[in-house]
Fold this protein.
Amino acid sequence: MLKFERQIWARGCQRVAGVDEAGRGPLAGPVVAVAVVFHPAFVEQEEHGLFATLTDSKKLTESQRNRFFDLLFDSPHVEIGIGFGAVAEIDEINILRSTHRTMNRALCRLPSLPQHAIIDGVPVPDLPCPSTAIIHGDGQSLSIAAASVIAKVTRDQWMIDLDREHPEYGFKRHKGYGTAIHIQALLKYGAIPQHRRSFRPVRDIEAIRGRMNRSTGCTHPIDPFRIES
């Protein structure tokens, strides 16, 4: 899991950042990007120790993700930068461009810019340092895997906090993804400011609710599941 890092270290770049994001697909909430820089001697020592099972966050349980999250933040040998792309930005410039900006923010929020970044997925333009993109990098690079875990846990906690304000949508369960429960809640209650109105399911549901309200002459949002007697 350090093959790519070692290749870049061998070129004289000791500060290598792994970069990944969480939250491109949901219908609500921000996109979160994270950049992680390991001190080389530390991560080489712990590759088969503390981080022996660190991998793509989607392949870990919630308790495993939380354990690695704490390990990474508690270590003085790990640098972490976190960037957020707000819903307003996503709706204004689209999710791809917002994700790229958010990765840029994550890199800029490290204590200092890395000498090189390795990115999960495809190349990202206009980053503040040289970079290499690796398809499925979160399962091949410890630095990217660490970034994926921190991004996932950070975003999940953001959605859990939102659930406390709006429990009717079930954000704690689905984290904003377009599950059947979430779609039903959108139909019943409509979208809130944290919903991505540029995403087709939200846009279509808002249009449906608008047509139903106009057809009934209601001046207040209706419940499409209510059966009038």
Q: What stands out?
A: The longest helix spans residues 142-165. The two ends are 63 Å apart (CA to CA).
